[in-house]
């Protein structure tokens, strides 16, 4: 799956369509969610390049319409066990630290049938909200 491009910018979809996406988008637009995690294997399988510092992306809603724009401020790759506390806090999904992050994300990705191990590679993307529509 290659992500949609609008006006020359890649798009980003948070969570799964439905309630999950609506909740995460709300955390960004009306809250303080300023980071997101993805599995390195997803980027490889989808032949999608990693985000890069300075890149702007349109946030899509459940109808694939842009609701805002983010600018990437930092991108790192690490193992699942090495996700830092600062990331869990920046992700702002209720995790108090990296341990909470690992527990909630093991559960989230586990529902997709994925077996997340400590050595599983993850991509951590930090961003700022630059526009909301």
CATH topology: Sulfate adenylyltransferase
Strand content: 25-35%
Average pLDDT taken over every residue = 94
Q: How many DSSP helices? A: 4
CATH homologous superfamily descriptor:
Sulfate adenylyltransferase
Listing every helix as H and every strand as E from the N terminus to the C terminus, the arrangement reads EEHEHEEHHE
Q: How many structural domains can be distinguished in the coordinates?
A: 1
How many individual β-strands? 6
- The CATH top-level class label: Alpha Beta
Please state the structural category. alpha+beta
User: Can you tell me the CATH architecture?
Assistant: Roll
Summarize the main sheet: 6 strands, mixed
List keywords for this structure.
6 strands; 4 helices; 6-stranded mixed sheet; 28% helix; Sulfate adenylyltransferase; alpha+beta; 133 residues
Describe this structure as you would to a colleague.
- This protein is α+β, with helices and mostly antiparallel strands and 133 residues long.
- It has one domain: Roll (Sulfate adenylyltransferase), CATH 3.10.400.10.
- Helix content is 28%, strand content 32%.
- The chain is built from four helices and six strands.
- Strands 1-2-4-5-6-3 form a six-stranded mixed sheet.
- A hairpin with a 2-residue loop joins strand 1 and strand 2.
- Helix 3 packs across helix 4.
- The longest helix is centred in the last third of the chain and has 13 residues.
- The protein is globular.
- The mean pLDDT is 94.
């Amino acid at each position: 799956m290659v992500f949609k491009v609008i006006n020359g910018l890649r798009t980003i979809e948070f969570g799964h369509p439905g309630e999950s996406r609506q909740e995460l988008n709300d955390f960004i637009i009306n809250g303080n969610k300023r980071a997101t995690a993805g599995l390195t294997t997803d980027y490889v399988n989808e032949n999608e390049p990693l985000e890069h510092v300075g890149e702007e992306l349109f946030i899509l809603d459940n109808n694939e319409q842009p609701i805002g724009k983010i600018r990437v401020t930092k991108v790192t790759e690490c193992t699942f066990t090495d996700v830092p506390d600062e990331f869990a806090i920046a992700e702002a999904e209720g995790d108090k630290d990296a341990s909470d992050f690992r527990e909630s994300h093991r559960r989230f990705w586990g529902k997709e049938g994925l077996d997340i191990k400590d050595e599983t590679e993850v991509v951590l993307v930090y961003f700022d909200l630059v526009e909301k529509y």
